[in-house]
Amino acid sequence: MALQFTWYGHGTFGLDIDGTKIVIDPFFSDNPSASTSLDGVAADFIWVSHGHGDHIADTVPLHKQTGALVIANAEIADWLAKQEVATHAQHIGGGYLHPFGHLKFTYAQHGSGLPDGSDGGNPAGFLLTTADEKKVYFACDTGLFGDMSLIGAAGLDLAVLPIGDNYTMGPGDAVSATKLLNPKHVIPAHYNTWGLIEQDAMAWAQRIEAETDAKPHVLQPGDSFAV
């Protein structure tokens, strides 16, 4: 089974699983690091990890553009349904077998208020298991937490971690997270979008190589990685 990951910039990701296209936390229109415009994005499914504007901003227009089903927590799903968006609601700890594979919502240490001030429920990460047992973990926006060791216990092919600091884990905590998760490969995200979260990803990658068993891959916005 072919699985390709794309970093669109900031905390926005794409997956292509045997031709099924997934966009995670769509933020293109006002994203200074976005590698493409919203018009150039295809999607069959959209995953939303939490309600903050830099993760949900383009969810409704992308759904209108593509008809993609949005997968989010129940509070966000209800909020989107009022905007005539087709949704599938899940919650932390819950998994569901979708056409692209089994998707489980994981704990995340963050907030989730929606752009209009509505309650966005609990923030989440995502653990994907494909039909051929590839496992990919998207921490999304989170701080470091010890139960990452449980997420990694089944064996991860790839972990995508924030390193920007201030709003999420910084580089040091992302190294600690990699030790807990023990993935084969790790990719940094959610950094260098603005000066407040500027980081040296290559220095972080050197620490990953020196201190963990994972292989780091520092991508530029628009770059892809085959899992």
Describe it.
By secondary structure, the chain is an alpha/beta fold. The protein is built from six helices and 14 strands. It has helices spanning 53-56, 59-66, 74-81, 148-152, 171-181, 201-211, and strands spanning 3-9, 12-17, 20-24, 45-47, 69-73, 87-90, 95-98, 101-107, 124-129, 135-138, 158-162, 185-189, 215-216, 224-226. The radius of gyration is 16 Å and the shape is globular. 46% of the residues are buried. The model has no long low-confidence stretch (mean pLDDT 97).
What labels describe this entry?
seven-stranded mixed beta sheet; about 20% helix; globular; Metallo-beta-lactamase, Chain A; 6 helices; alpha/beta; about 230 residues
Ends distance: 10 Å
If you consult CATH, what is the topology? Metallo-beta-lactamase, Chain A
How many domains is the backbone divided into? 1
How much helix is in the residues?
10-25%
What Rg is obtained from the alpha carbons, in whole angstroms?
A: 16 Å
Global structural class = alpha/beta
CATH class: Alpha Beta
Proportion of β residues? 25-35%
CATH superfamily: Ribonuclease Z/Hydroxyacylglutathione hydrolase-like
Low-pLDDT parts are none
Number of helices: 6
Number of strands: 14
Main sheet: which strands, in order across?
A: 6-5-4-3-2-1-14
Average pLDDT, rounded to a whole number, is: 97
What does the largest sheet look like? 7 strands, mixed
Spatial shape:
globular
Order of helices and strands: EEEEHHEHEEEEEHEHEHEE
Instruction: Just name the CATH architecture.
Output: 4-Layer Sandwich
